[in-house]
Amino acid sequence: MKIIPKKSLGQNFLIDKNIIKKICNVGNLRINDNVLEIGPGSGNLTEYIIQKKPKKFYVIEKDKKLIDHLIDRFDDKLTVINQDILEYDLKLLNDKDFIIFGNLPYNISSQILINLINTSYSNFSYKKLILMFQKEVADRILAQDNSKNYGRLSIISSWKLDIKKIMDIYPSSFFPKPKVMSSLLLFKPKINYIKFKNPKNLEYITNVFFNQKRKMIKKPLNILFTNSKEVVNELDLDMNLRPQNLKKDTFYKICLIYERLSN
């Protein structure tokens, strides 16, 4: 079966075997591991994961033609789910401590990551995310305060996850070749992190701040709070600062106060 990548789905298949081996090795897979691969494409990484003999192996793929190809290629060695990852309810997998791989479509990669961060099911958890992004997006995920790439994505990503850059990947490693570099990131869940009543509140708060990131923080604070002076005093904030000057922990504290005062 000839596989033609669909531009509409952002498909760029990884074909460099050396890179594929390195990605698989980052997973450090053991026989008893549960594995989930998001967007397996033509199955080149899938093949190497199967060789590690995981306990359970699920792949989620939206493209029906690729589903047929994967079933033909790997038969009963994995469980294939023909769904959009942004719409699929992960708790249906009913397994814990997944290692999740994903060569993510550039156009929805940030939303996939945020969904995984916000996922909290008693019967679904992961111990490692090994995800590929457009390098520009990866730089935003890794950014620290007072840098040009710092913003919502880095704040939300660092809330529950420790993040490490593994490598950059050149366009020549893919078919078709994308016009940009890619980066592979490793995410591991933090043991201790601030618990919010609703993770969507952090998304909302960072959106309010970074919608006008060149403005001083007084304006977003006034949007969020009827009495912003109370928040300023509690956190000892300098009102001359701009959103990119605030540390990640400050945004988490602002979110806690927002939830407290919203009751």
How would you briefly describe this protein structure?
The chain has 263 residues and is α/β, with parallel strands linked by helices. It has helices at residues 17-27, 44-51, 64-74, 109-118, 135-142, 152-160, 200-210, 218-224, 228-235, 248-262, and strands at residues 13-14, 34-38, 56-60, 79-81, 98-103, 126-134, 161-169, 174-175, 182-189.
Report on this structure.
With 263 residues, the protein is of the alpha/beta class. The chain is 37% helix and 19% strand. It contains ten helices and nine strands. The chain has helices at 17-27, 44-51, 64-74, 109-118, 135-142, 152-160, 200-210, 218-224, 228-235, 248-262, and strands at residues 13-14, 34-38, 56-60, 79-81, 98-103, 126-134, 161-169, 174-175, 182-189. The strands form two sheets. A seven-stranded mixed sheet has the order 4-3-2-5-6-9-7, with helices on both faces. Strands 1-8 form a two-stranded antiparallel sheet. The longest helix is centred in the last third of the chain and has 15 residues, at 248-262. The model has no long low-confidence stretch (mean pLDDT 92).
